[in-house]
Amino acid sequence: xxxxxxxxxxxxxxxxxxxxxxxxxxxxxxxxxxxxxxxxxxxxxxxxxxxxxxxxxxxxxxxxxxxxxxxxxxxxxxxxxxxxxxxxxxxxxxxxxxx
Length: 99
Hints:
Elements: E1 2-3, H1 15-29, E2 35-38, E3 55-59, H2 65-79, E4 83-87, E5 91-96
Parallel strand pairs: 1-2
Antiparallel strand pairs: 2-3, 3-5, 4-5
């Protein structure tokens, strides 16, 4: 697992550890190294869970569309309903957002 230069994960909430462990395994199964591309730093939408340590962005640019969808679906299944896993054009967003 790598952390992109400038990404801040100090202050990440413990609930996100489950997401990182699961994503790391899925990325390895797909033959890629997990790279965290956003944490608590940067500009996100107002009220974003990034600012509270409950969201991460994960690199996906090296996946073809089928592999990316597999990663999203498998991660969502492993994490369950308390997490949201969203595919964006340049990354996969994961957040802890229990209902």
